Amino acid sequence: MDVDLRKLRYFVAVAQTASMRAAADQLFVAQPVLTRQLRALERELGVRLLDRSHLGTTLTPAGEQVLEDALPLLRAADALVRRASRTSDERRLLTIAFMPGLVVTAIASRFCDTHPGWDADVVRTSFLDQVTVLHDGTADVGFLRYPFDDAGLTVTPLAEEPRVVALRRDHPLSDRGRIDVRDLEDEPLLDSPDLVPGWAGDHLPSSRPGITTRSMEEKLEHVAARRGIAIVGASVSDLYPRPEVVYRPLDGVPAARVGLASDAHRTAPELAAFRRIALELAVPTLGDTFRRWRPER
């Protein structure tokens, strides 16, 4: 039996909204049509997926299992469509995601030079979407900054660099040559400390106020506006100069690390070839501040 992806999308919408009406509005279909499609899916699978009452719509145990399995299946289907749309009869396209501060030009160029028939495109990401773009097919490979959820990914550690702190130029600590992280414990951090779990919990408690930003430009705008500090990889200081902002080396924290990742289900030989090129060229082409990182086993 083949599972109808459209019916699965309808089911997921109901499961996530817990409302037939809200799901119908989201899907731009009439509610009776949605109800018929869901009942047809239940008949095809031979199980009841939803319990409906005047209190709302809830998942049965079978529904919870189908939801868990449906989400990656639908992501894979969307990724298939995106990747197919990037491929022509003559040329294939490798889309490379990268985080702020990373320079991937040399690695992408080497791949194209050694793989006739392939072109490369790039897409910049953030901590919010650096993993998502790999799962949904927006990118084929990604240069990711740790930490990130590596579930469903094939990850190769590449490089590490020192961390620096970005301060407004007139900040009381800006005249120091180096800063200890313990001297920053009362400063608003312009990121969730969960993004740096290896050390933030000791010195930068997550209970204090802060602002979560979506890009490096936003982060530095907040630093310039005296709304907080930013702790970033040293490569950021060269690529994002600001007259109101200074960067100072930071002591007491581990290095910022970078890995290359792709969706674990993808095993194309070109991905393996790109991984080998990245390992060869990552240091120093990602940036002058990087050194080789080999995790302890």
From TrEMBL:
Presence of the UniProt keyword Transcription in the record:
yes
Keyword set, alphabetical order = DNA-binding, Transcription, Transcription regulation
Q: Which GO terms describe its cellular component?
A: protein-DNA complex
Keyword Transferase listed: no
| Family annotation (CDD domains) | PBP2_LTTR_aromatics_like
* Protein name (record): DNA-binding transcriptional LysR family regulator
Q: Which GO terms describe its molecular function?
A: DNA binding; DNA-binding transcription factor activity
Q: SUPFAM superfamilies of this UniProt entry?
A: Periplasmic binding protein-like II, Winged helix' DNA-binding domain
- Residue intervals of the HTH lysR-type domain: 3-60
Going by the entry's taxonomy, the superkingdom of the source organism is recorded as: Bacteria
> Which family is it part of?
Belongs to the LysR transcriptional regulatory family.
Q: Which Pfam families match?
A: HTH_1, LysR_substrate
